[in-house]
Structures are given as structure tokens and as C-alpha cells.
């Protein structure tokens, strides 16, 4: 992923993080605490909970509420003193409030036009697109018998040549913990096993077993290849949230593209202008599938 692509991704993630649920105060919005003549309503406590520091957000619900209420009370206390000093009338405060308002309006618009309108059909279509773009990766289903010495491995091969069942021999002679499963290693792709084992296994045809012992740091192996296939993609239900993020990213970038087309953006600093232009070239919705590896097939056992 390019540095500009990363920048765009971070910007998107940052705006998503700033999405705080809005809780409108109404007659059912109970007062949970009073600070002098000021009230803290349930809606404010809910907002405080949703904006807790990530470490505090891991606490049990009752502890989160206590931490959030404590923070809300602290805010009310000092905010009251700040108003008494008219800090809300300073230029710096007004500038910050204008920025915060713009940010919250951005988030409200994002929620209305992106988060709330994503459909299951769009997620499924994007999943299909990502799956189609995944590179083919061969997997094999193999068994093995692990023994300590080369002579023991050669003896195993002789028994296999004589017609002995591979799984039965594994249960009888293998020193690997999976011996009770007949030496079954399930399906695996390259990179999952040590190189010597992997090279030998992937070179063998389906249904064959190794005619010479395969030496690794673990000992001597006799390998049988049961099957070969292209690795299946992860099921949609395993990556649904991930794919939904991709759909939302594209919707978000489409909104930005329309907004930028309607309003001219001018940046006075040449270096910033160049950086902004380069970053925006990476923000083309739907231009390409996710980066390679974003939807990695899961190992099948």
C-alpha cells in the first residue's frame, strides 16, 4: 500500500472514530446526576460512555458507567467555571467550536448517507468482487508419519509398499501428537510447513506417499498426499464487517468526489497542494479491489 493510500485510509478511519451517537434529550431523558444547579441527563452519560478512552472502554459495563459519569461531572464543574471567565468568547474557543461543529456535521452526514444506507446486497456484491480478485493459491491435504531415525522411516515405507494402511501405521508408529488422527494434517498452503516437508509434499501427486524419508528438524517424515485444490475464500459471515467497511469507504469517497466537483479547493502552500493532489489520486471509489491480502482465505482443516 502506498504512503498516500495509507494516508487516505487513516483519514477515513479517523472520521469514523469521531462518529458519536446522538441522543436527543426528551421527557424520557432521565436526570442521572446534578452538579450544583446543572443537570446531567442519561443522554449525556451515554455520550460520555461512547467517548471513553479505548482502555477504559474495555471495562465491564458498570465500571464504564462510573468512569463516564465521573468524567461528565468533571466536565460540568470546569465548564461552569470556564463560562464564568467567559472563555467561550475567546477567538481560539470560537475557532475550535467552529471546527468541532463542522466535524460533527460531517459525521452526521456520513451516518445518514453512508452507514445507514449500506445494504446486504451491496456487501455481498463487494465480497464477490474481492473474492474474484484473490490470487489462486494451491492447498494440499496430507498425512504424515513422523519417526526419529531414517531407518525407522524406511521400514514404514516398506510396510506401505506391502499394502499397510497409512492411517493405521501413523496411529501405530508416528511420534507426532496427531497420530491419533492417522497423521492427518488437513489442508494447508505453502508457507505453513517447514520448507523440506513442504517442498516434498507439494511435488507429490495425489494419492502417493513419499518413497524416501523426508528429513526435517523434527525427525524423519513419510508423507501421503490425499488431495489438492485451490484454497477456498473465507465465508462471507467471517469477513462481513471487513467487507462492509470497504463498501462504506467507497460510498464515502463518492460523496467526497461529488462535493469536490461542486466546490473548488485552493491550497496556498505548493507542497501541501501537491501532497493533497497526490493523496486524492488514491481516493478513487471502486477503482480497484481491496489491497492484496485484505481477504485472506482461512486455513481449512
Automatic annotation (TrEMBL):
Gene Ontology molecular-function annotations: peptidyl-prolyl cis-trans isomerase activity
Pfam families: Rotamase_3 (PF13616)
Signal peptide feature range: 1-24
Catalytic activity field: [protein]-peptidylproline (omega=180) = [protein]-peptidylproline (omega=0)
EC nos: 5.2.1.8
Domain PpiC intervals: 137-227
Biased composition (Low complexity): 282-301
Keyword list, A-Z: Isomerase, Rotamase, Signal
InterPro entries, A to Z: PPIase_dom_sf (IPR046357), PPIase_PpiC (IPR000297), PrsA_foldase (IPR050245)
Family as reported in the entry's similarity comment: Belongs to the PpiC/parvulin rotamase family.
Protein name, as recorded: Parvulin-like PPIase
Amino acid at each position: 500500500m502506498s504512503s498516500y493510500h495509507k494516508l487516505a485510509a487513516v483519514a477515513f478511519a479517523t472520521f469514523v472514530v469521531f462518529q458519536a451517537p446522538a441522543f436527543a434529550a426528551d421527557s424520557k431523558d432521565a436526570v442521572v446526576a446534578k452538579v450544583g444547579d446543572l443537570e446531567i441527563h442519561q443522554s449525556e452519560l451515554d455520550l460520555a460512555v461512547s467517548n471513553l478512552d479505548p482502555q477504559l472502554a474495555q471495562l465491564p459495563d458498570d465500571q464504564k458507567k462510573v468512569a463516564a459519569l465521573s468524567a461528565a461531572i468533571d466536565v460540568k464543574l470546569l465548564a461552569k467555571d470556564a463560562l464564568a471567565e467567559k472563555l467561550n468568547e475567546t477567538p481560539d474557543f470560537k475557532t475550535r467550536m467552529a471546527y468541532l461543529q463542522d466535524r460533527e456535521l460531517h459525521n452526521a452526514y456520513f451516518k445518514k448517507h453512508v452507514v445507514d444506507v449500506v445494504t446486504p446486497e451491496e456487501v455481498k456484491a463487494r465480497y464477490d468482487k474481492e473474492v474474484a480478485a484473490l490470487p489462486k493459491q494451491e492447498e494440499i491435504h496430507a498425512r504424515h508419519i513422523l519417526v526419529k531415525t531414517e531407518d525407522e522411516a524406511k521400514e514404514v515405507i516398506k510396510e506401505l509398499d506391502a499394502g499397510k494402511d497409512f492411517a493405521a501405521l501413523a496411529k501405530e508408529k508416528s511420534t507426532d501428537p496427531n497420530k491419533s488422527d492417522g497423521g492427518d494434517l488437513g489442508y494447508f498452503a505453502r508457507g505453513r510447513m517447514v520448507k523440506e516437508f513442504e517442498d516434498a509434499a507439494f511435488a507429490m501427486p495425489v494419492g502417493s506417499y513419499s518413497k524416501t524419508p523426508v528429513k526435517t528438524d523434527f525427525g524423519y517424515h513419510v508423507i501421503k498426499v490425499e488431495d489438492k485444490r485451490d484454497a477456498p475464500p473465507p465465508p462471507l459471515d467471517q469477513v462481513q464487517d471487513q467487507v462492509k467497511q470497504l463498501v462504506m469507504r467507497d460510498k464515502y469517497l463518492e460523496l467526497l468526489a461529488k462535493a469536490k466537483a461542486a466546490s473548488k479547493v485552493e491550497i496556498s502552500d505548493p507542497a501541501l497542494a501537491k501532497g493533497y493532489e497526490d493523496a486524492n489520486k488514491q481516493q478513487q471509489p471502486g477503482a480497484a479491489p481491496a489491497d492484496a491480502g485484505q481477504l485472506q482465505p482461512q486455513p481449512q482443516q
